[in-house]
Amino acid sequence: MAQRHLLARPAALAGLGAAALGITALMVSARARKAERDNPPTGRFIDVEGVQVHYAEIGEGDPLVLLHGNGSMLQDFMASGFVKAAAKHYRVIAFDRPGYGYTERPRSTIWTPAAQAGLLRSALHRIGVSNALVLGHSWGASVAIALGLEHPEMVRGLILESGYYYGSVRADVVLMSGPAVPLLGDILRYTVSPHAARLLWPMMIRKLFSPAPVAATFDAVPPEMAIRPSQLRASAAESALMIPDALAVQGRYGELTMPVAIVAGTGDRMVDVDEQAVRLHRALPNSSLHVTEGGGHMVHHTAPHDVMAAVYAVASGA
């Protein structure tokens, strides 16, 4: 009898644990739905090869396409002082990349920068854009580069802000990739990860902006949208892809024949300016380097006119 009680105890504990995980997952799902109700789509939708793509437009003139970084969404750009300045001269088009905001990210596809570039190329054709200036921030810079390499006819010029271009050893990237692991990652995304991300959010944002203060314009980026399970999966998957993609593509940068402006902040705590931005500038004869003294990873918020100067440099070169 005592032996049966001992055997039953682990089974009971396992059952309680499973029930707790189930309740937590329901709570996380409910909170994600509330985030979407509180932050409805601000742009337009188009169906591209069966994928729902969300984008926003402002301004008139030559098209300027904006691609946000890992973990973010189009509000990051649309709320910035940079977009307010750019919209006076350009037709600014900001996309939610696959898995972020309101753009779908089917699990049947590995969403490498090249795969995302193909989707965005089709999306741009659908909205009547055949050639554009393309600005990519952080992970979005990798997608912008892929557009330039795989579909050069679409790209009049590239503006690359705070990008990661050369593979290196990054322990933080391995840690951030956990929610992308099949099965285990799904459990994390609906239980531990959203709560951890909510607690760490203020510290992460300070690190993104440091050494500059967090810009007031960033308040328009809703944190609850960023920590939904779907978006955490996209962010983790892109963390896992970051180093392999940089290693795979860094030998092809010489194929970028269009004008390129490289934007960076001297205090960026996410990517090393010398090892990334300066090195890429040296590899691209047709490039200009725009370094913001004391800037962090989010130059389009803290020094929007520096980013506009980079856009003008590329536009005049093109």
Would you mind describing this structure in some detail?
- The chain is of the alpha/beta class.
- The protein has one domain (39-317): Rossmann fold (3-Layer(aba) Sandwich).
- 49% of the residues lie in helices and 16% in strands.
- It has 13 helices and eight strands.
- An eight-stranded mixed β-sheet has the order 1-2-4-3-5-6-7-8, sandwiched between helices.
- β7 (260-265), α11 and β8 form a beta-alpha-beta unit.
- α4 (113-126) crosses α5 (139-150).
- The radius of gyration is 21 Å and the shape is globular.
- The relative contact order is 0.14.
Structural class: alpha/beta
How many structural domains can be distinguished in the coordinates? Answer: 1
CATH fold-type name: Rossmann fold
Q: Please, what is the CATH homologous superfamily?
A: Alpha/Beta hydrolase fold, catalytic domain
Largest sheet: 8 strands, mixed
Number of helices: 13
Instruction: Name the beta content range.
Output: 15-25%
Poorly predicted tracts of residues: none
Give the % helix.
Answer: 40-55%
> Architecture in CATH?
3-Layer(aba) Sandwich
Please give the CATH class. Answer: Alpha Beta
Mean pLDDT: 91
The CA-CA distance between the termini, in Å, is: 83 Å
* Strand order, largest beta sheet: 1-2-4-3-5-6-7-8
Q: What pattern of helices and strands is seen along the backbone?
A: HEEEHHEHEHEHHHHHEHEHH
